[in-house]
Amino acid sequence: MFFFKEIIKKNFFLYDFFTKLNLIIFHKNNIRILFYNTRKDLLYNFNILSNIADSKFSYNQISSLFNYKFKEIIFKEIKKKIKKKKIKILEIGTFDAHFTNWLSKLFPEGQIFTIDIDHKSKEFVKLEKKSVSSINTLLKIREKNLKRENIKFIKMNSLDLMKKFKKETFDLIFVDGFHKDPIVSQDIKNSLKLTKLGGFVVIDDLSYSKSNNSSLDGMKALNRLKKIQPKLLLKHVRPQNYNFKSFIGFFEKKN
Q1: I need a labelling partner for 141 at 20 to 30 A (CA). Which of 30, 67, 94, 254 fits?
Q2: Three-class DSSP category at 225
């Protein structure tokens, strides 16, 4: 069975078709999902990614398409574009610091500042909506992930960004904090101000509709920025995009 599955994964059309059947039979998806053009989404993402640093992408490079981590690929392409090794990175929204840890390994000579509100604050408990035991587990995972020399963790509210970093600029800023206004709009606006010319801003979990895990407010804020031409990458390429699409937005600061 495992061998059969691996063969299917290597054939985009078979993999796509059987995934759709699974969604219809076991997850009660609309039969119209069979006609959703997943390949169009894939080509769309490849086109967006190839324009960052002139890299070439093809399905043959991917062993498991529907688990392909497009967010990580954006940062790998930005690394090629920036070229500098000793860059300054700001991450808004640390959470469990899993991605912070990954960034620190991708940019081993870079300096990463990651911020999140104090876990003892009422805002943290309200935003994370977790029990005390769940928060303690999250904090243990975070502490382990933050144990790298090029990571500096700062407890603060992102609304105070301009006060904290008023004399600093960054080569790369990753916005992945609270997804609703006024916070997400202010995070995106402040990120533009704090980014160096030629630097990049990446915003996670954007959408054109309301969702618990994606941000309509963030999408609107990104589109309100003047003299900026943001790009949108589908966070996932999979048949489920028929029901809902989540995006990762990014742009290069050119003026």
Answers
A1: 67
A2: coil
Q: Are 173 and 201 in contact (CB under 8 A)?
A: yes
- pLDDT tens, N- to C-terminus, the chain (255 residues): 566 666 776 778 888 999 999 999 999 999 999 999 999 999 999 999 999 999 988 766 666 667 788 999 999 999 999 989 999 999 999 999 999 999 999 999 999 999 999 988 877 766 666 666 788 899 999 999 999 999 999 999 999 999 999 999 999 999 999 999 999 999 999 999 999 999 999 999 999 998 767 899 999 999 999 889 899 999 999 999 999 999 999 999 997
| Phi, psi (degrees; rounded to nearest 5) at 196 | -70, 155
Number of CB atoms found within 10 A of residue 43's CB:
14
Six-digit token pair at 211? 């969702």
For the chain, counts of helices (H) and of strands (E)? 10, 7
- Residue 200: phi, psi to the nearest 5? -125, 150
Residues 57-93: b if buried by 16+ CB within 10 A, e if exposed: bebeebeebeebebbebbbebbbeebeeeebbbbbbb
User: Any idea what DSSP says for residue 206?
Assistant: E
Task: Supply the DSSP symbol for 215.
Answer: B
What is the H or E stretch that residue 212 is in? none
Contact 146, 153 (CB under 8 A): yes
Q: Decide if 232 contacts 179 (C-beta within 8 A).
A: no
Burial (CB count <10 Å: 0-12, 13-18, 19+), residue 35: exposed
Q: 37-252 in CATH: which number?
A: 3.40.50.150
Q: pTM for this one?
A: 0.93
CB-based burial label for 104 (10 Å; 0-12, 13-18, 19+): buried
